[in-house]
């Protein structure tokens, strides 16, 4: 019996037991190639991801899973993901988009949940610091990361409802680990972060937010407002959602990492840039809540289903029914 106990403890140490309960596993262990993402369709909803927000080219142009693309600290993960956006990566707009959506029957919008993920860039096909990117976001944008915004376009900026709350440099060849601390009951959200193999630490306390998800609107990926060359590569690893308490260790907690995350707090609060477009009497097709209703090159519905109104989220490129 003693021998079995030691074996069990060894297994738990090697796999990195979670502190909380995993309610959705977004790891890429079951995706050996880009073709595995194509197994999902509206008629065949299999796997852990929906894959429909992408460009017209083969999936291998936008998604490439591989062991070389993961954060080595995630010891239980076999593969990470290299995600590429370019001028062909347009979906339902002229913006560059490559986004995976959780495929699950679990409720991802109740209680206190932690949305975990890690991001990296390199010096090859580096993200443009002059163009706005929306990264790992919810459809309503109640919380998200942005890049290419604010006083320092080279920072990853954490936002609540379009307001900057915290930021960090986004240096090449460094893994940045995050967990959105979302309490859907009390309607607050906070942030945990670290780099490489260091354990997560709280970098921002929970603050009021209009927390909501229908469990199918967390976008694992990147949306870039402006469509132009050159292409960009983003690296994603360690994606999962857990019910608290939070797991702060990455993998088995033994992979070395840097000692701290370089953080900055916004010194001058910026007012929201969202502009409300006055509602008119709808005539013709109407867009549903959180759908696009305007912007450069948009030819779809410009009226929203009541009581939603069309708001300029990123003028002049993108407007959304809210």
Structure report:
The structure is a single chain. This protein is mainly β and 322 residues long. The protein has two domains: 18-264, Sandwich (Jelly Rolls), CATH 2.60.120.1160; 275-321, no CATH class. It is 4% helix and 38% strand. The chain contains one helix and 22 strands. The strands form four sheets. Strands 1, 3, 4, 6, 11, 12, 13 and 15 form an eight-stranded antiparallel sheet that branches. A hairpin with a 4-residue loop joins strand 7 (133-138) and strand 8. It comes from Coprinellus micaceus.
How far apart lie the N and C ends? 60 Å
The CATH architecture of the largest domain can be given as Sandwich
The overall pLDDT, averaged over residues, is 86
Number of domains: 2
**What structural class do the secondary elements suggest?**
mainly beta
H/I helix tally: 1
The total strand number stands at 22
Runs in which pLDDT lies below 50 for 5 or more consecutive residues are 1-15, 254-263, 267-283
Spell out the helices and strands N to C.
HEEEEEEEEEEEEEEEEEEEEEE
Q: Kindly estimate the percentage of residues that lie in beta strands according to DSSP.
A: 35-45%
Name the shape in a single word: globular
Give the CATH level 1 class of the largest domain: Mainly Beta
CATH topology of the largest domain: Jelly Rolls
User: What fraction, in percent, of the residue positions are helical?
Assistant: under 10%
Rg (CA only): 20 Å
Largest sheet, described in full?
8 strands, antiparallel
GO molecular function, one term: cellulose binding
Organism: Coprinellus micaceus
Protein name: CBM1 domain-containing protein
InterPro entries: CBD, CBD_sf, GH131_N
């Amino acid at each position: 019996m003693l021998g079995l106990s030691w074996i069990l403890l060894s297994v738990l140490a090697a796999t990195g037991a979670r502190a909380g309960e995993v309610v959705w596993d977004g790891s890429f262990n079951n995706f050996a190639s880009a073709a595995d993402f194509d197994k999902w369709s509206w008629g065949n909803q299999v796997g852990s991801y929906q894959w429909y927000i992408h460009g017209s080219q083969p999936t291998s142009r936008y998604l490439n899973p591989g062991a070389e693309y993961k954060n080595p600290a995630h010891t239980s993960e076999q593969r990470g993901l290299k995600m590429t956006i370019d001028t062909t990566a347009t979906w339902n707009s002229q913006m560059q988009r490559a986004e995976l959506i959780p495929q699950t029957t679990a409720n991802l919008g109740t209680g206190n949940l932690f949305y975990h993920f890690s991001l990296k860039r390199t010096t090859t096909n580096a993200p443009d610091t002059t163009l706005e990117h929306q990264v790992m976001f919810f459809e309503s944008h109640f919380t998200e990361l942005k890049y290419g915004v604010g006083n320092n376009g080279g920072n990853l900026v954490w936002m609540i409802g379009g307001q900057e709350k915290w930021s960090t440099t986004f240096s090449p060849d460094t893994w940045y680990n995050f967990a959105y601390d979302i309490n859907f009951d009390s309607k607050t959200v906070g942030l945990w972060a670290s780099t490489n193999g260091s354990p997560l630490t709280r970098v921002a306390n929970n603050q009021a937010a209009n927390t909501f998800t229908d469990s199918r609107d967390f976008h694992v990926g990147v949306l870039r407002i402006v469509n132009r060359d050159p292409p960009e590569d983003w690296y994603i690893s360690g994606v999962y959602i857990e019910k608290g308490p939070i797991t702060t260790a990455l993998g088995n907690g033994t992979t070395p990492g840097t000692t701290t995350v370089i953080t900055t707090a916004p010194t001058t609060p910026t007012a929201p840039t969202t502009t409300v477009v006055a509602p008119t009497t709808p005539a013709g097709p109407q867009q549903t809540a959180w759908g696009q209703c305007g912007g450069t090159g948009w030819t779809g519905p410009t009226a929203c289903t009541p009581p939603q109104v069309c708001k300029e989220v990123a003028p002049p490129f993108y407007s959304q029914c809210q």
